[in-house]
């Protein structure tokens, strides 16, 4: 079947309806971040009748080598390895306790296999490796991943989890704020610059957009668009039965990222959709950028793709 030239947003099933989120990855790295990720995943599982994969990645302690000058006694190597393994096991048990408590409180059924048309469910699994790579690999076989917003001190390596998912999974990532809103996706703001990353984000967000009560396409006044206009996006969304409005914004003295966050807040949005790292991570780290501003300060969930 030939598609209309404006139908460039996302995949559809055999009936022509956009695919939904059926599998959600919840990274269970540390206790506090695991609780945020899992509680966010529960909200989504109820919205989309989805399955949650709660995955705990453990460091490979067999590869630990101390950074010392000169030869290291074998006994010290063994002690270091044993202590690291003990810490890893204790952390895994603590995070598993978080999983058990959250799913029990939410009334989510724990299963070990897929069941078509079933109610929301969850499963626990452990993997071995580094946070940035392993969680990214795990994300490749899920429709959506959730990740808590990194903290300033980042004691739980949240930035490794978030960037690992963004750069290594090829899937959309929903960054969750420290305090979860009552709803996700009732009012959606799309940060639009016409670029490839933003286009991918909109495609990934279609399941949210179809359920939203209000959708707004935000552009920053004075920013040069790298592709289709906000009006073009609104016209394309209309082919999916999604009504959207355009909003142009600019806050003097604020960066584009902070301008977008302020606009989303003023519109009472409970979900922001945007492309991530249109520029390199190094450039954003040195010069700043929209993604860096949003990752540091967002107080609502943010759906991102790279």
How are the SSEs placed, and which strands pair?
Blueprint: E1 23-27, H1 31-48, E2 51-58, H2 74-106, E3 109-110, E4 121-128, H3 131-139, E5 144-148, H4 158-168, E6 173-176, E7 187-191, H5 196-204, H6 206-211, E8 214-220, H7 230-238, E9 245-249, H8 256-266, E10 271-275, H9 281-287, H10 290-297, E11 302-305
Parallel strand pairs: 1-2, 1-5, 2-4, 3-4, 5-6, 7-8, 7-10, 8-9, 10-11
Antiparallel strand pairs: 6-11
Helix pairs in contact: 1-2, 3-4, 8-10
Structure description:
With 306 residues, the chain is α/β, with parallel strands linked by helices. It is built from ten helices and eleven strands. Strand 8 (214-220), helix 7 (230-238) and strand 9 (245-249) form a beta-alpha-beta unit. Helix 1 (31-48) runs parallel beside helix 2 and helix 8 (256-266) crosses helix 10 (290-297). The two termini are 29 Å apart. Residues 1-18 and 283-288 have low confidence and may be disordered.
- Determine the CATH superfamily of the largest domain: HUPs
- Predict the CATH topology of the largest domain: Rossmann fold
Which CATH-level-2 architecture of the largest domain? 3-Layer(aba) Sandwich
Strand order of the largest sheet: 3-4-2-1-5-6-11-10-7-8-9
User: Count of helical segments?
Assistant: 10
Low-confidence stretches: 1-18, 283-288
- Which CATH C-level class of the largest domain is it? Alpha Beta
